[in-house]
Amino acid sequence: MRIDIVTIFPDFFGVLDISLLGKARERGIIELGVHDLRDFTYDRHRTVDDTPYGGGAGMVMRPEPWGEALDATLTPETVVIVPTPAGVPFTQAAARELALEKHLVFTCGRYEGIDQRVIDYAASRARVREISLGDYVLNGGEVATMAMIEAIGRLVPGVIGNPESLTEESHEQGLLEYPSYTKPSTWRERSVPDVLLSGNHKAIADWRHEQQLERTRRVRPDLLPDDQ
Ligand SMILES: Nc1cc(-c2cccs2)n[nH]1
């Protein structure tokens, strides 16, 4: 998979050189390109935004630099991901789908937004997904992009050593994860549930599933199908 990011804060993504994704990049599983939107401007001040037509507070990102940035990155296989509070909520299912794509381009805009014609133009050349990280407002798309790259990147085949560990995570089967414990068996007068020390694998699996259901009912009843 190749990932390109267009942003006015390219240094923000330096952290992607380390950790899990750093290793995936070393192994050639994921290629990453970070592009400074200002490199696609030609005026002395490298201007990327301007006042909104129709008035109103804030600034809107100009279409010209974005058009050139898209020209430099888009391919027919690209999925353009536009982080925005006005997008479809990001989910584990979306991360799974996007992890199978060949090329993702993340367009990091300011909250006041990117000129709508850029999104419309991108949609004439590639698949575009306007995605929200949640119902709250960030100052720019960079934090949302970082979160999505982590959620997607870890699902790209070959990135995680033991793919089995992915199947029992929260939201993988639509449920929250069960509680986890490790040594010591008693800590500050709190002991690990006996079933986990029993060696009875079926009893352990049943207990963990029940814990998932109980936790999901308590914390995220909205995730439960009607019959659960
Ligand atoms: N979920 C979400 C995305 C955002 C963005 C703000 C600016 C660009 S993207 N805020 N909240």
TrEMBL record:
InterPro entries the record matches: Alpha/beta_knot_MTases (IPR029028), tRNA_m1G_MeTrfase_C_sf (IPR023148), tRNA_m1G_MeTrfase_TrmD (IPR002649), tRNA_m1G_MTases_N (IPR029026), tRNA_MeTrfase_TRMD/TRM10 (IPR016009)
Signal peptide coordinates: none
Domain tRNA methyltransferase TRMD/TRM10-type: 1-224
Subcellular location, principal: cytoplasm
Catalytic reaction(s) noted: guanosine(37) in tRNA + S-adenosyl-L-methionine = N(1)-methylguanosine(37) in tRNA + S-adenosyl-L-homocysteine + H(+)
EC class: transferase
Keyword Lipid metabolism: no
Compartment list: Cytoplasm
Residues binding S-adenosyl-L-methionine: G109, L133, G134, D135, Y136, V137, L138
Key words, A-Z: Cytoplasm, Methyltransferase, S-adenosyl-L-methionine, Transferase, tRNA processing
Keyword Repeat (UniProt): no
Enzyme Commission code(s) on record: 2.1.1.228
Domain of life: Bacteria
Function: Specifically methylates guanosine-37 in various tRNAs.
Subunit-structure text: Homodimer.
HAMAP family: TrmD
Family per record: Belongs to the RNA methyltransferase TrmD family.
Designated name of the protein: tRNA (guanine-N(1)-)-methyltransferase
Chain's gene name: trmD
